[in-house]
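Predict structure. Chain length: 170.
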Amino acid sequence: MLYRKYSIAGMLLITLFLSCDLNKKDDCIRLDNEIAAINDSLLAYGKGWGDELKIAVNTLDFTGLNPIRVQMQRYVDRKVEQVKGMKNVGGSEKLMETELEFLQAEKEIVMYKLSVFEQFDTTVAMDDLSDAYADMQLSAIKERDLLEKLHRLREEYEEKNDIPKFIEKY
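Prediction complete.
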């Protein structure tokens, strides 16, 4: 009888341990997916803004840039708060820290580099446009470096937490 109680208690502990481990893995997958989704959305915002910039440069009508930039800025602000509120799961400290650094870099680009174009009108000199574009491109170097670091940290995090990789190409 006593042996049976210990066996049942042992099985319950093993089940509890395994379910906690599965919950942790689910949390790790969720965190990884949230960070990926944040960055994918930022890429979409950037593409939308870039598409509008092409139109603005060709028509010298820069009024369409502000709404996209403001949406992007609000998005970045919300995501900074979201990432700050995420709990550390499976050793995600470096990943979340780098994501916050990336979001801060994005915020600076959006506020100080993209907004410059909104000041232009039909009288803008081509040199001013070129200078603003070159300045924005210089900021993109830091952005690219941080994205590469994030990609590397996500791969390490996925490997450490045994997160299955999706199939990128068939």
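Summary: Residues 22-160 form one domain.
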